[in-house]
Amino acid sequence: MGAYKVYVLGVIIFVHMVNIRNSVLHPPIKIPLPLPLFLFVFLAACAQGSDPRTPLADLQISYGSAEPSADGQLPVILPGRLDFRATDPQSVVLASGRVQLVEFFAYWCSVCKAMAPTVHGLENLYGDQINFIYLDRDDPATLDLQGQLGYIYQPHFFLLDEEGAILGQWRGYVDGEVLQQALVETVQ
Predict the structure, then answer these.
(1) Helix 3-21 vs helix 34-46: angle between axes, to the nearest 10 degrees?
(2) Can you state the angle between helices 176-187 and 110-126, rounded to 10 degrees?
(3) Handedness of CA 86, 91, 94, 100 (dihedral sign)
(4) How far apart are CA 23 and CA 100, in angstroms?
(5) In angstroms, how far is the first alpha carbon of the chain from the final one?
(6) What element of type H or E holds 160?
(7) CA–CA distance, 108 with 179 (Å, rounded to integer)
(8) Distance of CA 155 to CAs 115, 134, 158, 184, Å?
(9) What residues in the chain have per-residue pLDDT under 70?
(10) Which of 24, 58, 123, 139 measures 20 to 30 Å from 98, CA to CA?
(11) pLDDT value for 56
(12) Which pLDDT belongs to residue 59?
């Protein structure tokens, strides 16, 4: 349905509702005045625009390579899993001989929940080159690691080199591309 048809239909519905509401031949019907406006907005939202869109069935999604393209563009970060799986703090070695991204999170933290798909998407892209460690800040077993790294509040990300030195850290919501750029620069 085109935008013009939706507009005309909305006006007709609005006029009809006003006429029913103000009818003198019948007892007035109590129709909330915002109802015609709601119907008009609803119909307008459902109308198709003039620009064709790619059907979902035609979209192809894959993780592809984690390497930048020839023009220097980083790969798209596709959302990963939504849940948290805390790493066992006893198994964490800061000087692991491999680059690591350590995240202190809390299960109850809304920002941590919002960041989870992005961080796990980065893990899907770079997990073969970088260790991703997720530590529950409420777990008493992580207190020693919190002290060693200088944890402040969640989510708190630390990018560590092979010897466990902090290369970068971010707190709160962080744009995925910022983390991705730091990861790519570190492993190159």
Answers:
(1) 160
(2) 30
(3) negative
(4) 72
(5) 52
(6) strand 156-160
(7) 22
(8) 9, 10, 10, 21
(9) 1-70
(10) 139
(11) 42
(12) 43
CA distance 135 to 89: 7
Domain ranges in the chain?
3-56, 89-187
**Do strands 166-171 and 156-160 pair parallel, antiparallel, or not at all (unpaired)?**
antiparallel
CB 111 within 8 A of CB 79: no
> What's the pLDDT tens digit per position in 102-141?
999 999 999 999 999 999 999 999 999 999 999 999 999 9
Q: Which residues contact 83 (CB under 8 A, 6 or more apart)?
A: 116
**In this structure, are residues 66 and 74 in contact, taking their beta carbons and an 8 Å threshold?**
no
Question: Residue 28, preceding bond cis, omega within 30 degrees?
Answer: no
> Residue 118, Cβ neighbours under 10 Å: how many?
20
pLDDT at 45: 60
Write the CATH number of the domain with boundaries 89-187: 3.40.30.10
- For residue 159, the 8-state DSSP code is E
76: tokens are: 């798209």
pLDDT at 72: 73
Q: How much of the chain exceeds pLDDT 90, in percent? A: 58
Q: How many CB atoms lie within 10 A of CB 75?
A: 17
